[in-house]
Amino acid sequence: MLKQFFILCSGADKPLLDGCSEGEQTKYVGIGATVFFTAVMAFIASAYALFTVFDNIIPALLFGFVWSLLIFNLDRFIVSTIRKRNSFSSEFLQATPRIILAIIIAIVISKPLEIKIFEKEINTVLLKEKNAMALNNKKEVGNYFKSDLDKNKNEIKSLKAEIVNKEKEVNTLYDTYIKEAEGTAGTKKLGKGPVFKEKIAKHDLSKKELDTIRKNNLAKIAVLEKGTKTLQTDLDKKVSETQPIIDGFDGLMARINALNKLPWIPSFFIMLLFLAIETSPIIAKLLSPRGEYDFKLEDLETALKATIEQDKYQRELLIKTSAAMHDKVYADIAEDKKLYDLQRKNATELLEQQSNNFLEKQMKTL
Hints:
Blueprint: H1 2-10, H2 14-18, H3 22-54, H4 57-81, H5 88-117, H6 119-182, H7 194-247, H8 252-260, H9 264-287, H10 292-334, H11 337-365
Helix pairs in contact: 1-3, 3-4, 3-5, 3-9, 5-9, 6-7, 6-8
Organism: Flavobacterium granuli
Keywords: Coiled coil, Membrane, Transmembrane, Transmembrane helix
Protein name: DUF4407 domain-containing protein
């Protein structure tokens, strides 16, 4: 059962191969097994690749199965259409387009499996890229809110500086009227004279202005600080909203790019392995000598070709002979006197009838 299945996979003519030797059958069983297991590897690779895209096992398995059938059909077609000839160069020339196609298939198959094999290393590369993207994202969002935050900070700083300056002014006036009362400065007269009263009045006025400025500025500072907190909240919210996008940066293309950043030699040899697997049926058929199956197949093809060419020649000869016979028959008929007189009589009657009809039409128009 398994032998018959692999022969089916090889694309060989089963009735023709059944009449061949056991060794010849074994060769095509090996070719068919290679074709089958290449399709199995294609299913595994494509299912994993599509799973990274859809993140769902059902469509991944479904599309992976379809892809493996496509690869199986292509490989079977490639192997079954190669014909063994007497010249290796002509055989290789015939197989060149199929080898190129096999190389493309091998690269497509190997890439998803490379991603799976080097998954841990790829995750490390992706983690570094995600961290860098998170920092850049935070920096960009911070730059977006920076102007508003800096404006609020500068306004708060200016309002606080205004309060501090006014406090310094009040403290200076306080020291002035105290020293005036003590007689250590100003008029240097001990006691609370007119100058003292003038200076304390000026201090009290400045103190009232300080209270007003402090009240107004603290209210403005509270509003600005609230606005700053709102901006900071919006900044953090924006960073939080964009973080899932960065966390989801692990799709197929991201993993392929991460794989390309790893050392290329291991990946290259894995690709060579799949290339060897994919091209092995073709190489095996090119390198193997012409066997019993090839001779029988050539015999059938040449016999069919000879039969078709013979039938074609006979049909062409039949057409030529029939045409010659008809030409001779009609030539003999053309020389028959009775047929000539009959044809002349009929033609004369037809011309007379046409002339009479034309005359009737002309008379009706008058």
